[in-house]
């Protein structure tokens, strides 16, 4: 297959920046080039060096824009594309009033297919090349999700939500049907192309103890799969969970007692944690996922990133659309910055951009495949225009450093800042 060379400014991370001066954490090349063959990055370096190695490669010149690994969204809900921006309530009412009625529509394969196409259009438009997604309770929604991702060649993670109680008719499975459907979906999709299956008990409120036992069985049969769920997002949710599982020491103890916690577990929200729960996160290596726009939108609370990191816990960051209010990881980092500011924590832009790329790849165990522009990784690349709006261009005119430019992108950027998106080396946005 033909060699492709993308020319532009290059930024890629090697480890999480300890602070704004940690130059060893990343490589930045002013006139850089990526050489791509068969969807894999073959070379990265200065344009001069790389173009000499491949004089016949087809060159696309993205100067003066910045090339970065595609964004990774560590928690999003596919069947909530038409829930985003629904007014007025906090978590439990929001689920009952807006979310469950919408998710019920995904029993229809045509609706699922139609919405999957629109969902992936949004991801691409916003520069997200990989996500860990919750589908609906219906198998059809998962098939539509992975089919569409496969058509576009995207590395995607997702799973059917398991929920057998406290949800309306048409949105409940049973412990046995949830188990059977999940098994069938894993067999069809896990490891097919770039798809990865995530075992997805929605949260403790919607799974009976009998279902949790089935989830435990799935987790041990398929220990190569990730697990995703929700944890300690809202005070009413926590109180109701305690009523439903009276023997549990706390919310996290429910998931722990069913053997669901490991470094492959993603725990959306994880806001109101008790010291014992934090100790369990440390012991198991499970990953909290910070969902800033959602946490503000539903009035859920402030995620204590620094407190968890101080214990050695590695957190993801995510949009949580449809409670999250934007598909943009730039806007997610913007709101994340503000949530942390409210707690006296300063998210440096280098740390922010690491988080939305390599950082999220690490919590998914995929850093050898995505999240960087390293040689041998998959060529999911985004091209960022820091002057994509008049206000940004005005501000950029007096920016003097890479960090300043990144911060402008973080605070002011959105889908308009995403000029191009390469998925496995193929341009998908323009
Ligand atoms: N907890 C259980 N389900 C959901 C959901 O769909 N969104 C959010 N934000 N929290 C949840
Ligand atoms: Zn969620």
Summarize the structure.
38% of the residues lie in helices and 23% in strands.
Q: Give unreliable regions as ranges.
A: none
* Category by helix and strand content: alpha/beta
Radius of gyration: 21 Å
- Tally of extended strands? 16
N-to-C terminal Cα separation, in Å? 22 Å
The number of helical segments is 15
Question: Your description of this structure?
Answer:
It is built from 15 helices and 16 strands. The protein has 430 residues and is of the alpha/beta class. Strands 5, 6, 7, 8, 9, 10, 11, 12 and 13 form a nine-stranded parallel β-sheet that branches. Strands 3-2-1-4-14-15-16 form a seven-stranded mixed β-sheet. Helix 4 (139-151) links the parallel strand 6 (128-134) and strand 7. 56% of the residues are buried. The chain binds guanine and zinc ion. Guanine binds at residues 77, 91, 95, 99, 202-203, 230, 233, 294, 320, 323.
Features:
15 helices, alpha/beta, binds zinc ion, globular, binds guanine, 23% strand, 9-stranded parallel beta sheet
